[in-house]
Design brief:
Elements: E1 5-12, E2 15-23, H1 24-30, E3 35-37, H2 43-56, H3 59-73, H4 75-86, H5 90-120, H6 126-155, H7 157-167, H8 170-193, H9 201-216, H10 226-245, H11 247-265, H12 267-275, H13 297-311, H14 314-330, H15 334-342, H16 348-354, H17 364-376, H18 383-387, H19 393-414, H20 427-430, H21 439-481, E4 492-493, E5 498-499, H22 504-516, H23 524-543, H24 546-559, H25 564-574, H26 580-593, H27 598-626, H28 645-649
Antiparallel strand pairs: 1-2, 1-3, 4-5
Amino acid sequence: LHLYNFCILYMNNGQRKMKKCYSLISINNEVKTNIELISITKKDEKNNDQQRISSSLSTEDSFDVEKMESNKNGPLKSIATRCKKYFPCLDEKRKHMFKIVFIIILLILYHIYLGFAIARSFQNALAIVVLTILAWLLVLYYKVVRPYCFPKFVAQNWCSTLALRCKQKNRKSLQIILYVIIALAILAIILVSVWDKWQRLNSLVGFITILALLYIFSEHTSKVNWTPVFWGFGIQFLIGIIAIKWKNGMQAFQWISDQVILFLDYSQEGATFVYGFLTRPPMICGMDPVLMFSALQAIIFFSAVVAILYHLRVMQFVLAKLAWLMQITLRTTSAESLHAVASIILGMCETAIMITPYLPVQTNSEMFAILCSGFSTSAASMFAAYSSFGICPQYLLIVSIMAAPASLACSKLFYPETEKSQSTNISEFANQKSPYKNILDAIGSGASEAIMVVLENGACLVVFISLLAFVNAVISWLGAMVGLEGLTLEVMINANYYSLHVMILSYIFFPIAFLMGVSDETNMQARIAETLIVSELMGTNVVLNEFIAFQKLGKFIQAGKLSARAQMMATFALCNFSNLGSIGIQLGTYASVCSEQRVTVSRLAFKAMIAGCAVAFTSACLAGILVETPQFCNAQSAGSFCFNLTSAVQ
């Protein structure tokens, strides 16, 4: 008890007999019967009780109370109690003042450091300058603009009148005019982009074909809401212009992708300490790093970092703001928007767990959009593994960001909404508390959760590559029976050459790859050959997984069989989780986190995978339209600069 003096009533046979006020030490010494605590409500009784309390307490009683509290909680607690008694403002006003002074001192020291960094080299300090400016803009927005400017702006009568008029009969006309203006602007940008090389318009044909197929095979063609479709592809195109067409945007994305890869490479320090030369083998030809102990270890490191950011509520803040922006532009629900944005960084399992509270009330269209966004992009934790095969990291980052709005657009075109949504406000996620007790708990939990992801990736690679070899052997045996030698499911890769035989996957995906314009070769025979390679990679991605497809893409790059444009288009088309194995992962994940949606997920998963492929293909088409000079990337392989032990022995 914090109050050591209170009034009691003696109870004798259910009747009130006497009322007194005691100190805590007196109760322990005198009271031997049942008591009932009451609150005195009458003003005169309250004043009398206060006088009685002050008169009944002696100096010895007060000393005994403090002495007993000291013995109970120790000397430090006794000192704190006395400080609260004689300095009641210490816990409120002075604590707040000390906090402000401490923050001001830190800011002064930080800006002094920033000044020295700028004076030494502005180019090297450019990143920290940009981050500082962004931080101050956020502070200005949340401390000044939002609390003081927005209420006054909304309170103006002309603003309310304008909003009311827009919601009435003129709203439809204004929307049509706005859509026409934006469409004409997009068309003008496309024409300017392909002015010097009209062959790039081939990608526009592929983009329109994909949208037409989605609309033709739509679940409810007459129910399509064109607002999320238009804005989804519009934002995708805008991101493409900023990241691909605009020079400063390209440099910014290049810098961000370099920093992401550099950050993920720090995982190799811990992996080398634990696994030794399995992570960094000696530079001997044929001794490449073991994939399980090198590139895949970045997944564990990244998962732990995400858990730290989640514990500090940074992840909730960033994702909630991005999802809010997507929600107000595309008019999608909170769970759809949040899942689409989170898929840029997290994998399918993590994003599903994140929106678990919202899953039971999702409609079929919303569940389809959630599944589609999970299939349409790859997790950021896999960037280090992909880039180790020679894949351009900036392309991986760009296609992941472009996939967020495009996944919602494709899902609303392929499976429109026909039910009334019951989704809650997205602000609930922003206020979500961390499940971890502290930062150390977050690090341990994040690392342990990622272990299963690494093991699953390794197990899938072992199984799928083994099954692929078996299927190739069976098909080759069946082909030999009728005189078709070398018949396989995919491209036959030999040591010194690539021989194109009857390629099932290549021919299945060849029409869409050709319409996308993956090759810019003027010679039709060379163009068909390059398109067949890319289409075979697209088929490998769907039948097996993107990891094997990227690994094979790296081998094609090393062999010099793909041009820079074909590399770029293949990277955009392969950066997703749209494969048959991911369907099983989605089914298992949603069956465990939300059993109510298990039947719905099993019914929609295959269609959502097709929509996820369409999202990646549309991003590849936009890249083919906008990119003038694609970047040529080389695979980082130990075999490029290695000691040939066989030649040395000979």
